[in-house]
Amino acid sequence: SSALVWFRRDLRLQDNPALHAALEAGHTPVPVYIHAPHEEGSWAPGEASNTWLHRSLAALDADLQARGSSLVLRQGDSQAELQALIDETGAEAVYWNRKYEPATQPRDATIKRELREQGIDAQSCNGSLMFEPWDLATQQGGPYKVFTPYWRNALTRLHIPAPLKLPDTLPAHDARSVSLAELKLTPTLNWDQQFWEHWQPGEAGAQEALTVFIDGALNGYRQQRDLPDRVGTSLLSPHLHFGEISPWQIVRRLEAERSAGRDADIDGYIRELGWREFSYHLLHHFPKTPEHNLNPRFDSFQWARDNPSQLAAWQQGRTGIPIVDAGLRELWATGYMHNRVRMLVASFLCKHMRQHWLHGARWFWDTLVDADLANNTMGWQWVAGTGADAAPYFRIFNPVTQAQKFDPNARYITRWVPELATLPVKARFAPWQTPDLLAQHAPSYPALPIVDLAAGRDAALTAYRRTGGE
Ligand code: FAD
Question: Domain named Photolyase/cryptochrome alpha/beta: which ranges (predicted)?
Fold first, then answer.
């Protein structure tokens, strides 16, 4: 007998509960990926996600072929494609790992119910989270809105499961596949060319990134994770998003590294994975938050009128604030931006420019290789001050002093805004303050920021007070 193993955001073979369940039940697994972006509501994957997905699917197929199986690709409506494959293969079961986005959760529930009605063994598993979003509740029984008590509770329940065994060979199947090229996931213009100097999509690339992290940036992670001028973090976010690695695989490897000197860094890292868990908890319990403020008080907040030319300057890294421009250019070139800089560019957009956070969330959605509805929504609402447990609105980052603190030698700024390279280091944080030097060394860089920092801050605070803040 055979079983469909429906791959989605779990593009790996090791430690994959759905694949494991199919094998345990004695089925020949028919691995299938169905391309159905129209089922993701208004959050169909963006261009950077798609180009990553293309490579990740190729890697998954190669890994399956190395074991004697292969990946079946289809496109269309998920339910219809599953049904067609069941008819073609005579599959008796369908297994998958859960997804948690508000658009696809109800779809999956319907598919499970209808498959079961026809006697198909439909099972969903947890392949991407340490805690199901519904596993943890406050003492009153409701969802958490604050991270610290959420994580305190989570830590008391953290039981690391044993890894799942995967045989060296998998039984072959003869289901037909469309070609990967037919999914049209790669961009027509090669704007992603530079990406692949930084990334290796797929399960092997994810394991390699984890090893590099453990040998390198894990040492001193707690201090270095805030410094964008170096590799101070794991760079695992796109691999985690696509499920090329699971949090349990990471935690197991880290636990094996424990020693007195490393405990604080390991605990610090697992806590960051906790933020990812928390974002899925929030998305599950507050499914409208990808578009709507979690804190309704901000529904009356007066955002500035849409300003397409300012927004374009922000997107293209031409705001005249070097740290902000560096971040947005890093994003464009690599599909990634350092977490500290994400906070700074987001704060500048939502506060100094007073543009709605959704403008930023949408741009990130299209350009990040790690674009993730749960993490992105929480990140933007946190910075905008509209979310749970958010930075208070009136605490407005000053991008100049932040850059001086976290990028003290302007190395990050200089890497991404190289036209400032010949200015004295001190002048690279706020080059408009030394206009003669700027004109002489970097005539192509904006002479003034698109928003005056003090005026933008005051306008943001005034708008905030009108919502009844402080
Ligand atoms: P590490 O420091 O090595 O952390 C390890 C893992 O922990 C990450 O891969 C990630 O899965 C998780 N993690 C770390 N920090 C956070 C956090 N603040 N929130 C949630 N999970 C976290 N992350 C995404 O994965 N996708 C997004 O679309 C995304 N959008 C963001 C938007 C904004 C405005 C902000 C401020 C943050 C956003 N983040 C997002 C969170 C964070 O910036 C990235 O997860 C992190 O930079 C990824 O780099 P890393 O894997 O090297 O992180």
Answer: 1-130
In Å, how far are 7, 56, 66 from 186, measured between CA atoms? 20, 12, 24
Rounded Cα distance between 350 and 328, Å, is 15
In this structure, the number of other CB atoms found within 10 A of the CB of residue 45 comes to: 18
Q: Which of 285, 307, 338 is the last residue of a domain?
A: 285
Which helix (H) or strand (E) is 23 found in, with range?
helix 17-24
Q: What is the pLDDT of residue 468?
A: 67
Q: Are residues 22 and 136 in the same domain?
A: no
Q: Are 394 and 312 part of one and the same domain? A: yes
Atom of ligand 1 nearest to the CA of 225: 2
Query: 219 is written with which tokens?
Result: 């040492």
Per the confidence metrics, is the pTM higher than 0.95?
Answer: yes
Structural domain that includes position 271: 128-162+204-285
Question: Is any atom of ligand 1 closer than 6 Å to the C-beta of 339?
Answer: yes
Asked if residue 217 has its Cβ within 6 Å of ligand 1, the reply is: no
**Catalytic residue at 339?**
yes
357 is known as an active-site residue: yes
Query: According to the model, what pLDDT value does residue 130 have?
Result: 98
149 shares its domain with 50: no
Q: Which of 257, 285, 313 is the last residue of a domain?
A: 285
Mean local confidence (pLDDT), 302-322:
97
Mutate to test the pocket of ligand 1, among 250, 375, 383, 386 (most ligand atoms within 8 A of CB): 375
Residues 239 and 307 in one domain: no
Question: pLDDT of 224-249, one tens digit each?
Answer: 999 999 999 999 999 999 999 999 99
380 is catalytic: yes
Q: Is 275 a catalytic residue?
A: yes
